[in-house]
């Protein structure tokens, strides 16, 4: 006797109702789903770049800048360490891909070796007579490159997410490139402006001595320009800034655009360690000027009137409302570890997307019609039941894609069209098995029961092997291949449910 427990009936109906609820927002007018109450499912499937149109950016990460910065930091560390140990040196600077210095007293060679190894732990030390050179090892270079690329991708994602762009595709492309696809973004200029800034924020002291007429800069200092022209001279003001950083932007915990005295400013707050360093530095240097440096440009240079305690402060710089919001966004998202260079930019118009959607609809409708007609003609009433399960299967696929906020691309539509044909495979196996059982003289009820039981192993085998292929496509594929794999895998799972549970009910 065919047994279908009450709990299974409730489960099937509950799944179908949930599927309808999650799929329904996709057929509502555009943005109408945003007006639904929070407890009502309102997520919709996002359309990919090939369907919706948008922008495509291929970006190169300047890894050499990262290695150069490591060498500059190494020089600063060596200068301080050698001075603290009283070791005489000269010609301390970066030369090519290495940092080096000459000892003035050969008897300090042992101590200098210890200092160099301590400061440059990730560097290979080369000593030739009194000349010391430190060079990055190949292993350290590879590790740093991987870390920089991962950090760059994560920060790009944070910055784009805060602009409200939905479902951007951001992935590594080769050793030093990042591919960014922005569905629905027709003008990517603001995105590019946000991305091109490394947002490397640093608080550094300004020299008490002005720049000499000869332009000679004292050791440990550098000349940086203001980020805007001086109102009186029309050219950016130049500052002699200490290379030593008081606090870096990495210590920031928050940054918000706000107003002070009716002018847009950016308020910021440090973590505990950064707040303490900032408080100590301002307490010991009241009356001095410190520079707020962003991407090697001085955006503000206030005088320290009193110690700045509590780990909070304000950046003033003649901002507009939008520029203050953008700077706060950059600081919240974090600093890019290296500058970016745009190698390629393309905009995909909605016309191509409309053509793709139209072609996908035609393929899906034709596939659906042919499968429905074939099943009804071949299996009569049973075929009609399978067709109803097929419609329910499409609803469930749409519901799962909506719940996951997945991005639907043209290959994804291909996966759905393929699922339409594969979804009735299980029913064909079951119905043919029922026919065989009926031909052997079994009654209708026992033939149905035997047909479902004996076809189950074959159904699981065929779907499981296809699911394994879909998972491998998702794991090793990229972009469009992953979209195809996702819809195919979801379709396999939902078709198993509808073919085995729904048609049996």
Helices, strands, pairings?
Blueprint: H1 6-23, E1 46-47, H2 49-52, E2 54-61, H3 63-85, E3 89-95, E4 98-103, H4 109-119, E5 123-128, E6 131-136, H5 138-162, E7 169-172, E8 177-183, H6 189-196, E9 201-205, E10 221-229, E11 236-242, E12 247-248, E13 252-260, E14 263-270, H7 272-283, E15 290-294, E16 297-300, E17 312-315, H8 321-333, E18 340-348, H9 350-403, E19 407-408, H10 410-423, H11 425-439, H12 444-476, H13 480-502
Parallel strand pairs: 1-19
Antiparallel strand pairs: 2-8, 2-18, 3-4, 4-6, 5-6, 7-8, 9-12, 9-15, 10-11, 13-14, 14-17, 15-16
Tell me what you see in this structure.
By secondary structure, the protein is an alpha+beta fold. 50% of the residues lie in helices and 22% in strands. It contains 13 helices and 19 strands. The protein has a four-stranded antiparallel beta sheet with strand order 7-8-2-18. Strands 3-4-6-5 form a four-stranded antiparallel beta sheet. Strands 12-9-15-16 form a four-stranded antiparallel beta sheet. Helix 9 packs across helix 13, helix 10 packs parallel to helix 13 (480-502) and helix 11 runs antiparallel to helix 12. The two termini are 14 Å apart.
């Amino acid at each position: 006797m065919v047994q279908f427990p009450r709990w299974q009936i409730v489960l099937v109906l509950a799944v179908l109702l949930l599927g309808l609820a999650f799929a329904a927002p996709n057929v509502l007018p555009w943005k109408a789903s945003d007006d639904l109450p929070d407890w009502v499912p309102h997520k919709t499937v996002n359309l990919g770049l090939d369907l919706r149109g948008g922008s495509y950016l291929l970006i190169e990460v300047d890894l050499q800048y990262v290695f150069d910065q490591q060498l500059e930091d190494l020089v600063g560390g060596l200068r301080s360490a050698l001075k603290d140990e009283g070791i005489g040196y000269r010609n301390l600077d970066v030369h090519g891909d290495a940092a080096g210095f000459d000892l003035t007293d050969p008897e300090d060679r042992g101590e200098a070796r210890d200092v160099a190894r301590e400061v440059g732990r990730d560097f290979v030390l080369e000593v030739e007579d009194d000349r010391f050179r430190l060079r990055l090892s190949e292993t350290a270079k590879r590790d740093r490159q991987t870390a920089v690329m991962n950090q760059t991708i994560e920060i790009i994602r944070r910055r784009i997410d805060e602009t409200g762009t939905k479902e951007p595709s951001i992935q590594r492309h080769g050793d030093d490139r990042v591919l960014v696809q922005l569905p629905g973004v027709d003008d990517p200029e603001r995105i590019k402006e946000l991305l091109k800034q490394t947002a490397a924020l640093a608080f550094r002291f300004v020299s008490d001595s002005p720049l000499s007429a000869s332009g000679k800069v004292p050791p440990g200092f550098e000349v940086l320009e203001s980020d805007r022209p001086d109102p009186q001279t029309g050219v950016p003001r130049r500052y002699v800034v200490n290379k030593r950083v008081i606090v870096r932007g990495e210590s920031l915990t928050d940054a918000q655009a706000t107003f002070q005295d009716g002018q847009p400013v950016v308020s910021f707050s440090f973590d505990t360690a950064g707040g303490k360093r900032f408080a100590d530095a301002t307490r010991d240097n009241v009356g001095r000027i410190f520079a707020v440096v962003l991407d090697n440009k001085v955006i503000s240079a206030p005088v320290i009137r009193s110690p700045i305690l509590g780990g909070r402060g304000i950046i003033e710089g003649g901002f507009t409302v939008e520029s203050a919001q953008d700077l706060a966004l950059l600081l919240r998202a974090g600093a890019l570890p290296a500058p970016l260079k745009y190698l390629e930019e393309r905009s995909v118009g909605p016309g191509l997307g409309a053509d793709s959607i139209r072609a996908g609809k035609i393929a899906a409708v034709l596939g659906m019609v042919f499968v429905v007609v074939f099943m009804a003609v071949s299996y009569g009433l049973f075929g009609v039941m399978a067709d109803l399960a097929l419609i329910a299967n499409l609803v469930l696929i749409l519901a799962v894609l909506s719940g996951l906020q997945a991005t639907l691309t043209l290959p994804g539509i291909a996966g759905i069209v393929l699922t339409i044909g594969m979804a009735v495979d299980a029913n064909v196996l079951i119905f043919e098995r029922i026919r065989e059982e009926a031909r052997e003289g079994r009654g209708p009820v026992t033939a149905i029961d035997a047909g479902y039981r004996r076809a189950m192993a074959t159904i699981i085998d065929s779907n499981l092997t296809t699911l394994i292929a879909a998972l491998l496509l998702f794991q090793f594929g990229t972009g469009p291949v992953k979209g195809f794999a996702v819809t195919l895998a979801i379709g396999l799972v939902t078709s198993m449910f509808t073919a085995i549970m729904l048609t049996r009910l």
